[in-house]
Specification:
The structure holds two protein chains of two kinds. By secondary structure, chain A is α+β, with helices and mostly antiparallel strands. Chain A has eleven helices and 13 strands. In chain A, helix 9 (285-298) packs antiparallel against helix 10 (302-312). By secondary structure, chain B is of the alpha+beta class. The interface between A and B is medium-sized, with 36 and 26 residues.
Chain lengths: 328, 515
């Protein structure tokens, strides 16, 4: 139970530790004034829309307690929707309605609730029950994402999202996060969701972890993580990289979902992305961040950055080598 | 401009070497011991002379200063008397006391409000002798008594004399007679007719019996006492030498914790032009290494640095600093545990405050009380969360609940005779309330597992901080070498730039492919 890895091995693998992440990257590259746009999902959404970055459609927002009464009217024409706090974190306070049964609403778990329950949930969101430090918050009503059927068996009762770490506009590492019964439908690794490392070069699965341990199949759906190839991979990387410019954050995590019809969409941003992605990719971030730094110094063009990143960070090592020379 | 990393290293290096340098200077040149060796208690006695001016006339206050008897040494004394003329009189002429008597005299032309004059001294016992110097023996003056008082006293003396072999035994029996729950009729009659305290009667009975006797006045030293007053002992001449008896118990011998202020009769505080004068004493004991104490006595005049030590402060502040100086150590423990080990805690410095409470309650009792408070608090808070209250009133409600819990715990434990649990009052209420609030939110959002991790982490850090703060060597170093705080500051600055791995990360990343 107390397996340890030696610090020298971690260093050799280029693993980024919490202290270095805080001082060397978040503290050094992310200006505090730029956090706001990442921390507030409404601001993220409006900034994304102004740059034509696709996001799930916003049906409406509830900002004041008295507006809660009108929520059923707003939802009149909607069969499925998601209500979430605009400043929540870690997937807290997200209510997913997948359909209707007469006057009742059907949750993703199949449980049916009435409109009183929906109002109570919205009112809790406004009171700050799900926000950091209990700050007053606003609730946003979003379109439900019909996620790509390719990913269907990878997640238990929840939308799998793809986390891409972007450094100075260069995508450096990615993983797909899948909900489990343990994580209660949330794609949050702390709560036991599965993290599956994705090869930046090819969009293929590298390795999967749950609670920092390697696993080979999903604990609930039983699907074996193998030959999956994430669709729209280039588009996803492109979308994630655009967020660097949009926010001014040099070190960020972009969470992307793939809609069956509309393709990749930006779900939310994180100015302090976690480190578990390294275990899921069986690779350290430090070497990649150093390479990404060189790439960013080399070019300002986003397409060029992504092209170089796909070559450099491919774990299948296709076409790797000659560019390393160029950069060094 | 230097990079922030270089700046930190430079500043930290400077601070660390400054702290260590001063410490070494004190250790080598001034002889302060680095390790706690043999300790002796240094008592700081702060005397307050309170009085009201009787009219707007000149005021003269005289305080008889104690003579150092029974092995006591005065390390340092200090007078505070703003607005007063001040002098110390060394009188050789007082033959009744057989030696010189030192008095402090404060004078002032006019005074219009109640005033307190301060006299502070630092005492320690250089020799453990209970032997007092010779004292002249005077034949006692017969007390003036009414006939019925005389008859009662006569009967009492005869009764006690029958039971006692010598005068010391007689005095002891006499004191016990006055201490009894149901004294006999003669004793009761004497107490009633005198209308004075028992000690006055006892002195008169001794005089009636012809035993040379006087009072010894002084203070019972109790650590942390604020409003201690003068107490008295009885000293009698038994034909060969002087013997001391404690009027509170009847036991003979000088009590260990008694500091003699004045031997023999005479007033201690004399106020002319004032009324309602009173003397009270604040006492604090510090355990100091014998070497330090001796050094201080010899050098307190020559070395200015000592004037800037914590010892130069008034008693109450010294007590506060004794605790304050330990906090940097606890802060270092927190920094260490979070940055190097990677323990998760609920609230960054909450463990420090809990550790400070543990110092008052002792570890096991403190842990039990804390777990009890937080446990019951969480249970009540879980009900509050159903009520869907706004955050501020919710936390305020939890604060009140915590105080109620503390009161209930204190009352119940007191009734059960468990005095230990009374220390519950040392827990910082607001911090406990916030801890409950945080834990409860954590429970709802992340589940009980995370509560156990963060709660357990907080407690582990609190216990380690407590152990660090209560280690004798730490207490010794922080109090005697406060400049080490600079070194601590330097270390903490350096740790703030530590970018290496945390111990917990070696476990977290254990499943990485090493090949």
């Amino acid at each position: 139970m107390f397996g340890l890895i030696s610090p020298s091995n971690l260093r050799r693998l280029g693993i980024l530790g919490m202290n270095r992440r805080n001082i060397g990257f978040i503290g050094a590259y992310n200006k505090r004034k730029n956090y706001r746009i990442a921390d507030n999902k409404l601001e993220t959404k409006s900034a994304a829309l102004s740059r034509s970055i696709p996001v799930p459609e916003l049906y409406g927002t509830i900002e004041r307690q008295f507006q809660v009464k009108t929520i059923t009217e707003q939802l009149e024409a909607r069969d499925s929707f998601v209500i979430k706090p605009s400043q929540g974190s870690g997937g807290k306070g997200i209510l997913v309605i997948t359909g209707r049964n007469g006057d009742l609403f059907v949750k993703s778990s199949g449980v049916e609730i009435d409109s009183r329950e929906i109002k109570r949930h919205t009112s809790n969101i406004l009171a700050g029950l799900y926000s950091l430090g209990g700050r007053n918050d606003s609730a946003m009503i979003e379109a439900l994402i019909a996620f790509d059927p390719v990913l269907k068996d990878y997640s238990f009762e929840g939308v799998p999202d793809i986390r891409v770490i972007v450094f100075r506009g260069v995508p450096v590492m990615a993983m797909i996060r899948c909900a489990t019964r343990e994580s209660d439908g949330k794609a949050n690794l702390h709560q036991g969701a599965v993290g599956i490392g994705i090869d930046i070069g090819t969009g293929q699965i590298v390795c999967a972890v749950q609670r920092n341990r390697i696993i080979t199949q999903h604990p609930d759906t039983g699907v074996v993580f193998g030959e999956l190839k994430i669709p729209h991979w280039q588009q996803i990387l492109d979308l994630a990289a655009s967020c660097a410019n949009m926010t001014g954050l040099d070190y960020l995590g972009a969470d992307v979902v793939i809609d069956r019809i509309r393709g990749p969409m930006l779900l939310e941003l994180n100015a302090r992305p976690g480190l578990a992605i390294q275990v899921a990719n069986q690779a350290g971030l430090r070497h990649r961040l150093a390479t990404a730094d060189k790439i960013a110094n080399l070019t300002n063009d986003q397409d060029e950055k992504i092209k170089l990143a796909r070559e450099q960070f491919s774990q299948t090592r296709v076409g790797r080598g000659q560019l390393a020379l160029e950069i060094v | 401009m230097l990079s922030s990393r270089v700046q930190v290293v430079l500043i930290a290096g400077l601070l660390i070497s400054l702290g260590l340098g001063l410490t070494l200077y004190k250790a080598i040149n001034l002889g302060f011991p680095l390790l706690p060796g043999e300790y002796s208690d240094v008592w700081t006695v702060e005397t307050k002379a309170n009085f009201r001016p009787s009219s707007n006339s000149a005021v003269e206050v005289e305080l008889v200063l104690p003579k150092m008897l029974a092995g006591w040494t005065n390390l340092d004394e200090h007078f505070a008397s703003s607005g007063f003329g001040f002098s110390i009189i060394d009188d050789q002429a007082d033959t009744r006391l057989m030696a010189d008597s030192r008095r402090a005299r404060w004078t002032r032309q006019s005074l219009d409000r109640p005033t307190t004059l301060y006299y502070k001294m630092q005492l320690y016992r250089s020799a453990d002798s209970t032997q007092l110097p010779d004292f002249p023996v005077f034949n006692p003056v017969q007390p003036r008594l009414k006939p019925d008082q005389q008859a009662a006293m006569e009967r009492l003396v005869i009764k006690l004399a029958e039971k006692s072999s010598d005068q010391e035994r007689f005095t002891s029996l006499l004191i016990q007679e006055f201490l009894r729950d149901s004294p006999d009729q003669d004793t009761l009659f004497l107490i009633d007719s005198y209308q004075e305290d028992a000690l006055t009667v006892i002195m008169d009975v001794l005089a009636y019996r012809g035993i040379p006797a006087h009072q010894i006045r002084g203070i019972f030293l109790e650590d942390g006492r604020r409003r201690q007053t003068l107490s008295a002992l009885v000293e009698i001449y038994n034909g060969e030498g002087w013997a001391i008896l404690d009027p509170r118990t009847g036991n003979s011998g000088l009590p260990q914790n008694f500091f003699i202020w004045q031997r023999g009769e005479g007033t201690i505080l004399n106020v002319i032009g004032g009324r309602n004068s009173s003397l009270e004493f604040a006492l604090v004991s510090n355990s100091l290494p014998v070497k330090t104490v001796v050094g201080m006595g010899q050098r307190s005049e020559e070395v200015d640095l000592l004037d800037f030590s914590i010892y130069a402060l008034p008693v109450e502040q010294q007590g506060i600093f004794k605790g304050l100086l330990l906090i940097p150590v606890a802060a270092l423990v927190v920094v260490f545990m979070r940055i190097l080990v990677g323990v998760r805690t609920s609230g960054t410095f909450m463990p420090v405050l809990i550790a400070l409470a543990f110092i008052q309650t002792t570890l096991i009792v403190g842990l039990l009380i804390f777990l009890g408070l937080v446990g019951v608090g969480l249970w009540i808070r879980s009900y509050l969360s159903h009520l869907n209250l706004l955050l501020v009133s919710r936390v305020a409600a939890v604060i009140i609940v915590v105080i109620l819990l503390m009161a209930v715990l204190a009352v119940i434990s007191y009734k059960l005779g468990l005095d230990q649990a009374l220390t519950v009052t040392f827990f910082p209420t607001v911090i406990v309330a916030w801890t409950i609030e945080r834990m409860s939110i954590l429970w709802e959002e992340e589940g009980g597992h995370e509560v156990l991790i963060q709660g357990g982490g907080s407690l582990i850090v609190a216990v380690l901080a407590y152990l660090a703060m209560s280690a004798p060597i730490v207490e010794h170093l922080t109090f005697n070498f406060p400049e080490l705080m600079l070194s601590l500051l330097g270390i903490i600055l350096l740790l703030g730039k530590y970018t290496g791995f945390r111990l917990s990360e070696l476990h977290r990343f254990r499943d990485l492919d090493v090949k």
